[in-house]
Amino acid sequence: MLKRLDHLAVVTADLTEAVSTYQRNFDFKVVRSADGNAASIRVGDSEIRLLSGAPAAEAIAQAGEGMFALWLEAADVEPVAAALRKSGIDPGAIQNERGRRILAIDPKYANQVPLFIFDRKG
Asked: What is the distance between the alpha carbons of residues 5 and 62, in angstroms, rounded to a whole number?
């Protein structure tokens, strides 16, 4: 039911240093956002998103820097939600946002990692 890893979100207090680390250590090509609060690294057909500044501050205050969220793409989130319910997991309501239908899975079901499963049917 799941098609691919879409992106992994990583929060950082120092975006410049994080970009430098990914470039220096892994030779990744990093593209910074126009607002200076994010950067993107393509890895195959997936992405690592580095987030900083005000959007990341609350997450950093609560859990520190590092992996913040895992985004998985599905062909259709409705059967995914049904399968989760069948296994005893409440995926909550499907949210519609920017052309996507999104399931926000409680981190307690994903080893304390915020997990989002979406399709592009929104």
From this structure: 25
Which pLDDT score, from 0 to 100, does residue 65 have?
Answer: 93
Sheet holding 115-119, edge to edge: 30-32, 38-43, 46-51, 2-11, 66-74, 115-119, 100-105, 95-97
Q: Which of 21-30, 35-44, 54-63 has the lowest mean pLDDT?
A: 54-63
* pLDDT band at 41; cut points 50, 70, 90: very high
| Token code pair at residue 84 | 């989760």
What CA–CA distances, in Å, run from 47 to 61, 62, 92, 102?
24, 24, 26, 18
Output the domain CATH number for residue 19: 3.10.180.10
Q: What single letter denotes the amino acid at residue 22?
A: Y
Q: What is the mean pLDDT of residues 104-108?
A: 92
Extract the tokens encoding 48.
């690592």
User: Of 79, 92, 99, 91, nearest to 1 (Cα)?
Assistant: 79
Print the domain residue range for 51: 2-119
